[in-house]
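The authors assume throughout that readers already know how a fold can be written as discrete tokens. In essence, backbone conformation is discretised, so a fold becomes a row of integers matching the chain in length. A single example would do more here than another paragraph of explanation. For illustration, here is how one protein appears when written out as sequence plus structure tokens:

…
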Amino acid sequence: MVDPENRAIHAIDVPLRAMTPSPEDVVSILLVEPDFEDAGLYADSFADIHTPTEIHTVSNGATALEYLHQRGEYADSPRPDLVLLPFQLPAVSGEAVLSELNGDPALKSIPVIVLTGPDDDEVRRAYDLHANAAIEGPSGTEKVDVLVRAIEHFWLDCVKFPAVDP
């Protein structure tokens, strides 16, 4: 604050306190990851970013659909703001999950980042099924950290998510 009399800048005392984000400020992310260790890498990386996130992890496509449709043990689970979905999954493929999401009016507005392999055909199929992004899935801690920071910068800091109807 500037004092008009002497043009000095005065510090404003603001009490320091832990900032707890409100529930609407926390970004809910559904991570579909069959490898337990890789899921842990993602969870650790998301815990280290500035944007408050809540990571929900499932290990296959069938469970992802249960979660997204809020069925069974996932009946009270929050609707994710973002889904990280590999195409190569046990039980039900990521392609089938993405196709079902796009066919459901209640779910098709959820942004989906498809984690692909290096195959251009897989990337093309992801976009044909209306994925919001297709990214080659990282391997190793450093690459997961880089990917999570990129997701934070673009998807969590810049992108505006659609409001959810009650």
